[in-house]
Amino acid sequence: MDEILLYRRDRGWGTRNHVLVLPLVASASGVARAIARGTEAVWVAHDYEPTPDDLQQNRDRIARTLAGFAANPNVAAALLVADTPERSALLDRIRAAGQRADLVVVTEAGGFRAAVEQGRGRLEALLSGAAAARRERAPVSALILGTECGGSDALSGITANPALGAASDHLVDAGGTVILAETTELIGAEHLLARRAASPQVAEAIYTIIHRYEAVVRAHGEDIRGANPAPGNIEGGLTTIEEKSLGAAKKGGTRAIRQVVEYAVRPAAQGLVIMDTPGHDIEQMVGMVAGGAQVAVFTTGRGTPTGSAIAPVIKVATNSHTASRMQDNIDLNAGLILDGTETLESMGRRIYEAVLAVAQGETTKAERLGHREFSISRYPFAVLDRAGAAR
Amino acid sequence: MAEAPPTFRGWKRPDGALGIRRHFLVIPSVVCAAQAARTAAEGAPGAVAIEHQHGCAQLGGDAHLTEQVLAGLGTHPNVAGTLVVSLGCETVQGAALHRSIAGRGQRAEFVGIQQSGGTIAAVAAGRQALERLRNGAASDPEVALTWADLRVGIEAGWLGIPPAQARVFSEVIDRLLRAGATVMQAVPDGRDGPDPRPQGARGAAGPVPRDAATLPYATPPGGRGAFRMEAPRSRIAQKTGLAAAGAHVILSPLVEGLPAGCPVAPVVHVGIAPHARPFAGDVDVMLDEIPSAGAAAAVVAALGRACLEETALEALGDFEMAIHRIAPTM
């Protein structure tokens, strides 16, 4: 069995040894930032503020996202920052998942400065605990790879996405897990994916997640083409959402689809799985990482800089022009396939090898630039209820 | 207690806007440009980078509202110049946002990440653009402003402020209107709050008259006086909407949750006892269960102080941002 060096956690294997400071509500973001500033810890910010109008389904989705993100195996320990003590349930949930975690409640601490001081103390303890961690031999099958494409162009479906698909096949064949996501960018490719479903239930689930998004767009009286393909996709030569989807679906490779999971849910099956996420690059990445992905590959035609605070994201350009023009941000160039110096197979192998190298500690460009985009994803449950769509 | 000082130090922009701050605002047109925007602003005097999670994968009307909010912040009177940082392929196109901000008379610059050739190049271009904005703003004349030149945004406290404390906000609004200020009160979902108690004892801080004109979210008022503004429940999204409508200063009644600043307008937090008592040091004014006779004057004075000096939250660089969304992310 192929072995690589990873961090052992109670809930899987990590590719990084981060300590995360995570605000549970938007108004705690400032305290979280002040606690993390100048330390080794990473932190994120978001704009979610609970209100009495939030649907229970979205509260559950958001709690699952925050808990899954904090408990990702790349995180050695997490410090949560809350406004009020009622949110300590999330601390219990994260600890129950086997994660070392602590909590600062700003109102209990006595305000901003006191909370920062208290948080610093708790963070120090978490950081010194994490410092002892060392990489150990781990099976490649421990990896959950998130796949993503953003700023796609006409070459995405010809070079980078099928090359990533070849890399996905390598990982699946090694016993690992690959997440294919961004449901809105699978619209039009669902029949091809359903054909590869491991069971009729999985095939049905693939149709369901597609139809749900279509129903939402219809219920808003909008045309999805207003959002997708995006202006840059069109400038890059993509003409329709179907064309974009047929290319996007290639990221997952060619193996059987074992499972369809909801947003930010950890796959139970190994092999290729589909996660129901929006196409929004950040919401998608956060969902996959909250679902346990410890490494991601992100293909791009136009070039995009985003990353994750806790998971390495490898950027693969679809063309040599973008690869050289956006070299601050691009790790690998699948445009070499078009240039004739690489094949889909050889590029797929290179991407797979990059995944293994990055999993073992090689840093990506997004990590070096300090990217830490984060976003809370809500699902339009109410709209779906009104539309009477299948759930 | 004395009334607020009658005049405030301000600046006049070439387009005539009168502001109490001279921020240089760095706006990412999409979440993907936030890191470059933040890095470009680091160390640049007066620069404030906003962060948001939007700008792509949005449906038509929703994308339009995001663009309207960003343009409103970019043309805010407290902003002396705006730099738009775009990725290039996003739904809310940075170039169009820049045109819309510049077209409204604001000093504005544009940097595209894809166009510049990556983050590092875009950050370097952004720093130069910020310097040009600063040089341009140096000649804006300093002017003396009165309440009649200012818009005060009032956030709604939806969980219900007890009647004795709510009356203080009514008096604050009366005093501001008498002094000539324009007052905009956020009204969540057209309701004054879910609180079933009789009107006058309702949750939304001190009622702006119900017959006042109602503005759509993030829409500047056409004239002076009292206005209501449609708003979501999120207090941070309320502040963002009030700021995008041009509020120079924002009053936040803190009946639940924590203080949160706003990138372009100082926020005065009035702590409602007993909720805010444990973190009384973070609020500008504490309103006891039985407010003192001078409470309203103290709140108006705190608003005046915020117009004159940097608030504690501004000094910490602590502000949040949330844009109201009317359709799900795609």
Can you tag this structure with a few keywords?
heterodimer, A: 391 residues, alpha/beta, Ribose 5-phosphate Isomerase B, Chain: A, seven-stranded parallel beta sheet, four-stranded parallel beta sheet, 16 helices, 14 strands, globular, B: 330 residues, Rossmann fold, 2 domains, 31% helix, GD_AH_second (chain B), D-galactarate/Altronate dehydratase second domain-containing protein (chain B), UxaA_altronate/galactarate_dh (chain B), lyase activity (chain B)
Give a verbal description of the structure.
The complex is a heterodimer of chains A (391) and B (330). With 391 residues, chain A is an alpha/beta fold. Chain A has two domains: 18-132, Sugar-phosphate isomerase, RpiB/LacA/LacB (Ribose 5-phosphate Isomerase B, Chain: A, 3-Layer(aba) Sandwich), CATH 3.40.1400.10; 139-368. Helices cover 40% and strands 18% of the residues of chain A. Chain A is built from 16 helices and 14 strands. In chain A, the strands form three sheets. In chain A, strands 10-11-9-8-12-13-14 form a seven-stranded parallel sheet, sandwiched between helices. A four-stranded parallel sheet of chain A has the order 4-3-5-6, with helices on both faces. Chain A has a three-stranded antiparallel sheet with strand order 2-1-7, with no helix packed on it. In chain A, α2 (56-70) packs across α3 (88-96), α6 crosses α14 and α8 crosses α16 (381-387). Chain A is globular and about 60 Å long. Chain B is α/β, with parallel strands linked by helices. Chain B has two domains: 23-137, 3-Layer(aba) Sandwich (Rossmann fold), CATH 3.40.50; 148-316, Rossmann fold (3-Layer(aba) Sandwich), CATH 3.40.50. Chain B contains nine helices and 14 strands. Chain B has helices at residues 34-41, 60-74, 94-103, 113-116, 119-137, 163-178, 235-244, 295-308, 312-316; strands at 8-12, 18-19, 23-28, 47-49, 79-86, 108-112, 142-145, 151-154, 182-188, 213-215, 226-231, 249-254, 267-272, 285-287. In chain B, the strands form three sheets. Chain B has a seven-stranded parallel sheet with strand order 10-11-9-8-12-13-14, with helices on both faces. A four-stranded parallel sheet of chain B has the order 4-3-5-6, sandwiched between helices. Chain B has a three-stranded antiparallel sheet with strand order 2-1-7. In chain B, a hairpin with a 5-residue loop joins β1 and β2 (18-19).
